[in-house]
Design brief:
Layout (H helix, E strand, L loop, with lengths): L6 H10 L3 H14 L10 H8 L8 H13 L27 H13 L1 H8 L13 H9 L14 H21 L5 H16 L6 H24 L3 H18 L2 H17 L3 H11 L3 H4 L3 H17 L3 H17 L15 H14 L3 H14 L5 H17 L3 H15 L6 H14 L8 H17 L1
């Protein structure tokens, strides 16, 4: 059987200046970032076949689109490459025109159904999904009239809003202790059943209705954060979008800023630093910052500092860090905090400050701040503790302190072996093996011992 050459794909690969092997390598990087295990071994022969007219299967068109989008700096769609886009359930979450309650229904069903979840988890993090709607969209969402309740609909009051917030806080504590890979499906079940039911209820007044929308938005955010922590980046993006829609409908500016901050954090971690900076800038605009508490403002500000540092704006990043420190210093017991899942305190500020200094090239400053974070973090935050230690070891080995890094990383493995289910913490173990590779043949006992232990752990978890 003969195929018609895919001239669209050939032309864009030429524009990108990629050989077939380079295209395959970029494809595999995107697949690895999104934990798409079945797509991480593409070779140049696959690219040649696709150029020759063979149809790419499954998520391959979307993965290649994302790789070329990064290369060319503009959104490339599967259609532009001469492919049919892979279908996936729940993608209405990325469409700003889809009603948030409809989005919740579709996304929840897809996430809870085993077969449909495969499509969701097989989707790819979307650069196009990082574009925010215009100002009119936010205004229209906040001003939207409440949907009429069906005859005989249940009534929901202030205590129901409080119950959703209590459940959110409980799931958040579990996430901080065990990681995003533990309990998220139970959270989604609660969101899809109980909380979705509340959103269709009759409310005594508009304040309580908006309170329920905000509570649902924060729970959606938490589902996204847990998916992000466990390396399910496209799924996380869907839930962040859903949370943002619900927060906008609730007209809750601080919560909107918080979710934009999380989206920025994810984008920066995945290497989309310009997009991450735009999201973090949006998170501190207007009432998102002005109406937030000092503790909330500090969190928004320190992630904005990371975005500035990641894009090479070191002086602006340093100023943003100072403002975040001032905001956190202004937090006190006299200023009531909303019942959020933020948990932002000195240890968190030190962690994000260290990441900013690391990205600015200040290794000594980063090491100092990572150690400060480790020293001041409470025992309830075991997952974040493991992530911080992983980052600390990476900077230590980059600074030439190999044995010190091994000691740090050994504590990461101690934590992981005690039952932390986190893709970010697991990635720290993968990174430690990669960073120790140049030292394996130098006869350093600490390196040999840690590398063997890390290898055994990764075999066990896979």
């Amino acid at each position: 059987m003969t195929h018609k050459r895919n001239e669209r794909l050939a032309a864009i690969l030429e524009e990108a200046g990629w050989s077939r092997a380079q295209a395959a390598s970029a494809f595999n990087r995107v697949a690895q970032e999104n934990n798409l295990v079945g797509y991480t071994a593409i070779g140049r022969s696959h690219i040649s076949m696709w150029v020759g007219g063979t149809e790419a299967s499954g998520a391959s068109p979307v993965i290649l689109s994302q790789a070329l989008t990064r290369r060319l700096g503009r959104v490339i769609t599967p259609d532009e490459l001469g492919f049919a886009a892979a279908s996936s359930s729940g993608q209405g979450a990325l469409d700003w025109t889809v009603d948030p309650i409809l989005t919740l229904t579709d996304l929840g069903r897809s996430d809870l159904d085993v077969e449909r979840r495969k499509l969701l988890t097989g989707a790819v993090y979307s650069i196009a999904g990082l574009a925010l709607p215009g100002e009119s969209w936010w205004e229209e969402m906040a001003a939207a009239a409440p949907a009429e309740s069906a005859a005989g609909a249940r009534r929901a009051g202030r205590s129901d809003v409080a119950a959703v917030r209590e459940m959110t806080a409980a799931f958040s504590r579990m996430d901080q202790s065990r990681g995003g890979g533990h309990g998220r499906q139970a959270l989604v079940q609660y969101l899809h059943s109980d909380v979705r039911g509340f959103l269709h209820a009759a409310f005594p007044n508009d304040e309580i209705r908006r309170g329920m929308l905000a509570a649902a938005g924060e729970l959606s955010y938490l589902s996204g954060w847990m998916a992000f922590d466990n390396g399910k980046h496209a799924l996380a993006q869907n839930y962040f979008h859903l949370g943002l829609k619900l927060a906008a409908r609730a007209d809750d500016a601080p919560l909107t800023g918080h979710i934009l901050r999380a989206m920025a954090h994810q984008a920066i971690d995945l290497g989309f630093v310009n997009e991450g900076l735009r999201l973090s800038t949006a998170s501190i605009q207007g009432q998102r910052y002005a109406s937030a508490t000092p503790r909330e403002r500090a969190l928004l500000g320190v992630v904005h500092a990371r975005g500035l540092a990641a894009t090479g704006q070191r002086q602006a990043a340093a100023k943003a860090l100072l403002r975040a420190e001032d905001d956190l210093s202004a937090a006190s017991e006299d200023i009531p905090e909303p019942n959020r899942t933020f948990f932002f305190a000195e240890a968190s500020l030190a962690h994000e400050t260290a990441c900013t200094l690391r990205d600015s090239g200040d290794r000594q400053g980063a090491i100092h701040q990572f150690k400060r974070s480790v020293r001041t973090r409470g025992s309830a935050f075991r997952r974040t503790h493991a992530v911080t230690l992983g980052y600390l070891g990476s900077v230590q080995v980059a600074d030439g302190h190999v044995e010190e890094a091994c000691a740090t990383w050994s504590t990461v493995l101690d934590a992981m072996e005690e039952g932390i289910y986190s893709g970010r913490a697991r990635q720290a173990v993968v990174d430690m093996r990669r960073l120790l590779s140049p030292y394996r043949r130098r006869g350093i006992p600490a390196v040999a011992s840690l590398d063997a232990r890390a290898a055994a752990y990764l075999v066990q978890v896979h």
